[in-house]
Amino acid sequence: MGEILTAAQMRAKENKAIQGGFAHGLTLMERAGQGVVDATFRVIGEARDGFMSAVVLCGPGNNGGDGFVIARVLHEMGWQVQVYLYGDAGRLPPDARTMYDRWVAIGPVSPIKDAVSGQGDRPVLLFDAMFGIGINRPIPAVCAQAFEAICTRATGPECFVVAVDCPSGMDVDTGAVLVGPDGANTLLERTDLCVTFHAPKLGHYLTEVGRQRPAVVDIGLRPEDEVVTQLVGPCGGPAKEWLQSVTALGAGGHKYDRGHVLVLGGGVGKGGAARMAARSALRVGAGLVTLTVPPEAIPENAAQLNAIMLRPLDGADALREMLADKRLSSVCLGPGLGVGDRTRALVLAALEETAQDGRRVVLDADALGSFAEDPQALFEACHAGVVITPHEGEFARLFPDLAERTRHSDPAATGLGKVESTCRAAERLGATVLLKGEATVLADPEGRSMIHAALYDRAAPWLGTAGAGDVLAGLIAGLSAGEQARTHAPIDLAGAAAWLHVECARQFGPGLIAEDLPEQLPAVFRNLGF
Ligand SMILES: NC(=O)C1=CN([C@@H]2O[C@H](COP(=O)(O)OP(=O)(O)OC[C@H]3O[C@@H](n4cnc5c(N)ncnc54)[C@H](OP(=O)(O)O)[C@@H]3O)[C@@H](O)[C@H]2O)[C@@H](O)CC1
Ligand SMILES: Nc1ncnc2c1ncn2[C@@H]1O[C@H](COP(=O)(O)OP(=O)(O)O)[C@@H](O)[C@H]1O
Ligand SMILES: [K+]
């Protein structure tokens, strides 16, 4: 997994490099500007014949400094470059000012308002170097207007838009775009390529910022082992090795080595969700799976199940007795279980019985919904082996204060993004939280956090289908059951499950329904080489 940074973490790295004396700010900026140009040509190929015109929009901070470097590099390559500046050159920070001076020795700089008229030909390349990680309020209307006017100039070829570090106006910690009251910000939608420095920032994987993954330029900062957010997926090696290191996938052994998952199911006519969770747990590698349901739901389930075992369950006391068998190594509660007192009692019993012995528990759907009135009871009962898998609505019912602060589109006013709110929730719960969505965010009480983004080349919008969440809960429970799971933090197993979940959806393709997900696992494993 690769690291992803907040703006503050990136600043700290830059400051450490500069103050530690192993990099000069100007050197970093030169590498940044050169890196943006290199990354751009890697994507668009060589210059389009006859049209070698670029516009660079520069802002009042160091992002603008990168813009002046870009202008100079392109000029040296023979491009015609127009540069517009928002703000006063006399007030640029020192490194950006130096880069400004180096550019004005070559070509002019116009005030940004001059670009608003829409006069002139559309350039082949447009660089947005107005605001980077230093944005702290919605961008000035004139900046958004100039950008839009250049993109929509009447004549010229299609323009390729490159965002330097991030589309201007994006809060890189939250992925939210800060839009002023007096204008729509179209920068995000129009951006073709985002080029960032050293490592992606959280927002790059919470929101799509371009038509492909952001390019990352190495500007020569040292990697450090401080705690940062990780991007779920293989890093630097094949997915097979990563999954083998995190899970028991591909390992042989006795079925009991691969663990026994207990899935609790709902009453008559409500059993589909738990059956899908159970099947997913079995397919992902659990040695055995037992589904336990109210006695009256036994006939319905018996008619549906073969490899999955079935047991009747009266209530919380019966569950305690069942869990006295320690071979039941992970438990999944929630899908189709029903919201109410019975489910609350079952959840509390499962948490109590597993609290001391490190067994893993996955709580989803109704297991969470049953605590909407009294989340504190759930927080007190949770332990370090628990993973909860809320969608945004379930998250909001358990953590209304955090959700309220995340919903605002202006994070400058509220300060909480999806990653930070998930981290706070995990801390409050003392357990791992997986907050579902197109960008799935995971956090654990040790302070670790991850993003799994079904974006860019991993987009799978057809995964948003009824029951997909039940499958994910089963996958986590299945991966958490084996002997090997005890040596892995729940967050690593949940992250691997989220990756497999999306991988199944992508390999199946559109038309997917939730039942297809576990059935796709054998092909996913085969393709991985297991
Ligand atoms: N440090 C390094 O060595 C390297 C840095 N690098 C580059 O630097 C970028 C970060 O630079 P940065 O910190 O100067 O922030 P940046 O995003 O340019 O904006 C800050 C300026 O904007 C202003 N401002 C903010 N919001 C505003 C608004 N809505 N409307 C109007 N003004 C607003 C704010 O002014 P103030 O808030 O003080 O009024 C300030 O003047 C980073 O993204 C990367 O591209 C790379 O070269 C690698 C090496
Ligand atoms: N646009 C999307 N792209 C990728 N995955 C998505 C998208 N929308 C939803 N998902 C995933 O689909 C699942 C939906 O789960 P959930 O909301 O619990 O639905 P259900 O209760 O129907 O199972 C989650 O794993 C979520 O991450
Ligand atoms: K920018």
TrEMBL record:
Binding site for (6S)-NADPHX: 62-66, 132-138, 165, 273, 336, 391, 470
InterPro entries: Carbohydrate_kinase_pred_CS, CARKD, Nnr, Ribokinase-like, YjeF_N_dom, YjeF_N_dom_sf
Catalysed reaction equations from the record: (6S)-NADPHX + ADP = AMP + phosphate + NADPH + H(+); (6S)-NADHX + ADP = AMP + phosphate + NADH + H(+); (6R)-NADHX = (6S)-NADHX; (6R)-NADPHX = (6S)-NADPHX
Binding, K(+): 63, 128, 168
Keywords for the protein's UniProt record, in alphabetical order: ATP-binding, Isomerase, Lyase, Metal-binding, Multifunctional enzyme, NAD, NADP, Nucleotide-binding, Potassium
Known cofactor(s): K(+); Mg(2+)
All copies of domain YjeF N-terminal, residue ranges: 10-227
NAD is among the record's keywords: yes
EC id: 4.2.1.136, 5.1.99.6
Annotated binding of AMP, by residue: 436-440, 469
Keyword Nucleotide-binding: yes
Role, per record: Catalyzes the dehydration of the S-form of NAD(P)HX at the expense of ADP, which is converted to AMP. Together with NAD(P)HX epimerase, which catalyzes the epimerization of the S- and R-forms, the enzyme allows the repair of both epimers of NAD(P)HX, a damaged form of NAD(P)H that is a result of enzymatic or heat-dependent hydration. Catalyzes the epimerization of the S- and R-forms of NAD(P)HX, a damaged form of NAD(P)H that is a result of enzymatic or heat-dependent hydration. This is a prerequisite for the S-specific NAD(P)H-hydrate dehydratase to allow the repair of both epimers of NAD(P)HX.
Subunit structure: Homotetramer.
Family statement drawn from the similarity comment of this UniProt entry: Belongs to the NnrE/AIBP family. In the C-terminal section; belongs to the NnrD/CARKD family.
Protein's name in the database: Bifunctional NAD(P)H-hydrate repair enzyme
